[in-house]
Amino acid sequence: GAVEVSVRSPIACWFSAMLYCFGGSVLSSLMLAEPPVAFLAKGTNILLASSVWYLVFYCPQDIFYRCFAFLPLRLLVAGMKEVTRTWKITAGIAHADSRFKDAWLVMVAVGWARGAGGGLISNFEQLVRGVWKPETNELLKMSYPVKVTLIGAVLFTLQHSQYLPIARHNLMFLYTVFLVISKVTMMLTRSATSPFAPIEAALGHMFFGLQKTPSKVKGEGAASSNGSSVCDRSSSEQHRDGVKKRQAKKTE
Hints:
Mean pLDDT: 79
Number of strands: 0
Low-confidence stretches: 1-7, 214-236, 248-252
GO molecular function: identical protein binding; potassium channel activity
Helix content: over 70%
Membrane topology: Multi-pass membrane protein
Number of domains: 1
Largest sheet: none
Subunit structure: Homotrimer; conformation seems to be controled by binding to diacylglycerol (DAG).
Order of helices and strands: HHHHHHHHHHH
Radius of gyration: 26 Å
Catalytic activity: K(+)(in) = K(+)(out)
Keywords: Endoplasmic reticulum, Ion channel, Ion transport, Membrane, Potassium, Potassium channel, Potassium transport, Transmembrane, Transmembrane helix, Transport
Strand content: under 5%
C-alpha cells in the first residue's frame, strides 16, 4: 500500500536521514522563528551526510556498513558523536541568548533541541517514512541521549548565566568525558539501562509517589499464576464431571 511505497522510496529514506542528522537545527530554528531549511544552505554538510546515507543503504554487499560494524570503529564514531553533542548544546544556548537575553527557559529549550533534535523530532521522521509509533514519543518516555542532553543544557545554561562557578572549557571537558565514558560502557556491556535509572526511581518515588515496576511485574505474574491455577482447577473439575456422567450412563 501507500506505507510500503513511502518506506521503500529513496527520497523518503534520504529525507528521514537528513532529519536525523540535522534535526537539532530544524527544531531550534522553529523555536526561534527562523527558517527551518537553513541547514540546506551548508552544502558541504549535506553532501557529506548524503554520501554516508548512500553508502550505508546502497553500498554493494553492505561493505560500508560491515566496516563500521567493527566494534573499535563503532566506539570511535560513538565517541566523536558525543563530542559533537557538547558543541551543539553550547552553540544552541549561545544562539538563544543572542535572541533572548538571560531567558533561562529559552536557552535550556534551544540547547536541548540542538543537542537532541534527532530524537525529539523522531515522530515526524516516522511519518515521513510512513511509520507511526506514538509509544516512541521522546517526551513520554525519554531515551538516555535525550535525558543527558537535557541535563547538559541545564548545566551549560547555569554556567552561561554565571550561576555555576566553573569555567566553560572545564565544564565542557568534564561533560564530554562523562558522555564518552557512559556511551562506551553501555556499548561494551550491551546495556540499554540509563545510568540515571536509580536516581530517577528514587526521585520519582519521593516527589510523585511512583511505584517501582518490578513489583507490578511480580503482581501480574502472581495474578497470571493464580489465573492459570483457577483454569487448571476448573478444567479438572469438568473432567471429573464428565467421567461421573459416563459412569452413570454405563450403570443405566
